[in-house]
Q: What sequence folds into this?
C-alpha cells in the first residue's frame, strides 16, 4: 500500500476488489436458475408426516430434484388466515409449532430458512398494483409451510416468505392473488401453495384407502386442474361432488387457487402425486407451468 494518498484509479481498483470479495447477502440469489419457476400445490397432511413412512413423504423429499433451483420461495399456507391480505417481512422467520398432541420430536424441530424482506415488499407492491392492498407483519413459518419445506429443501438455505389467505373472500380472490404474483416466477421465485386436496378432520380414519366420497372429489379436482378449468375450480363449492364434506372449511383448498392463478391465464396443471393418509386426507399435488 503506498504511503501517499491513493489517486482516483487506485481507489476504483480497491473498491472493485472489495465489492468482489464481500460476503453474499441473504437477499441475493443463490445460484438462481434462468428457467421460469413453476407454481406448485402440495397437500401437507398432519405435521407427523415428517416422522411417518408414507408415499407422500417420499414424494416431497424428492420433489426439489425435479425443479429449477429457486431464488426464493413464496409460500401460501392454509394455516395463516387473515381478514386483510398480509405478507411476512421477517428477516429470520421463527419456526411455529402451531399444533398440539403430536410426538415431542416434532416440537424440537426447527426450519431456520432466512426470510426475504425485499421479496415481501415486492409482493406487497405487486398486489397493490393489481388493486389488492396488502399489510406487512413479522410472523414466522407455520407447519403448513415448514413441514413440506423441511422435506423438499432440508438444508433450509432458500429464503422463504409467507403470504396469508383470506377465506371469507372466496376462491376467485385467491386466483386473483396468484395472478398478481405470476411475474415472480420469471424472477426465480417458487410460488408454493400448501394445503390439502381434501381436509375433513372430523372423519379421519386409518390407512391409505380413501372412501368413495373422497375419491369422487379428488377425481373431479384432478380432471379440472388438468384441463385448466378456471370456471369450475372457482365454482367448486357448488359443482364438485361432496365438496362440503371434503372441505367443511375452505382454507385448505385455496392455496391451490393461488398456485393456479400464479401460472398466469389459460394454463393446465399436471398431477404430480396422488395418495391418501389418515383414511380421508387426499395428498394430491399439482404443478403449473404457465407462460
A:
Amino acid at each position: 500500500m503506498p504511503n501517499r494518498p491513493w489517486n482516483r484509479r487506485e481507489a476504483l481498483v480497491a473498491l472493485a476488489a472489495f465489492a468482489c470479495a464481500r460476503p453474499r447477502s441473504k437477499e441475493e440469489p443463490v445460484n438462481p436458475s434462468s428457467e421460469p419457476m413453476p407454481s406448485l400445490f402440495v397437500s401437507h397432511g398432519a405435521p407427523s408426516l415428517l416422522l411417518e413412512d408414507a408415499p407422500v413423504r417420499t414424494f416431497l423429499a424428492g420433489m426439489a430434484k425435479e425443479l429449477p433451483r429457486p431464488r426464493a420461495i413464496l409460500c401460501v399456507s392454509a394455516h395463516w388466515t387473515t381478514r386483510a391480505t398480509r405478507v411476512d417481512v421477517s428477516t429470520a422467520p421463527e419456526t411455529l409449532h402451531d399444533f398440539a398432541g403430536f410426538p415431542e420430536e416434532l416440537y424440537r424441530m426447527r426450519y431456520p430458512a432466512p426470510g426475504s424482506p425485499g421479496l415481501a415488499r415486492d409482493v406487497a407492491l405487486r398486489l397493490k398494483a393489481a388493486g389488492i392492498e396488502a399489510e406487512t407483519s413479522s410472523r414466522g413459518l407455520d407447519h403448513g409451510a415448514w413441514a413440506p419445506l423441511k422435506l423438499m429443501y432440508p438444508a433450509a438455505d432458500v429464503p422463504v416468505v409467507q403470504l396469508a389467505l383470506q377465506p371469507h373472500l372466496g376462491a376467485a380472490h385467491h386466483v386473483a392473488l396468484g395472478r398478481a404474483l405470476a411475474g415472480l416466477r420469471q424472477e426465480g421465485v417458487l410460488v408454493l401453495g400448501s394445503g390439502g386436496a381434501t381436509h375433513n378432520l372430523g372423519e379421519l380414519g386409518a390407512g391409505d384407502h380413501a372412501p368413495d366420497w373422497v375419491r369422487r372429489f379428488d377425481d373431479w379436482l384432478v380432471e379440472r386442474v388438468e384441463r385448466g378449468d378456471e370456471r369450475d375450480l372457482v365454482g367448486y363449492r357448488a359443482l364438485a361432488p361432496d365438496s362440503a364434506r371434503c372441505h367443511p372449511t375452505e382454507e385448505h383448498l385455496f392455496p391451490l387457487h393461488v398456485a393456479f392463478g400464479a401460472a398466469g391465464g389459460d394454463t393446465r396443471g399436471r398431477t404430480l402425486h396422488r395418495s391418501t393418509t389418515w383414511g380421508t386426507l387426499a395428498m394430491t399435488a399439482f404443478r403449473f407451468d404457465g407462460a
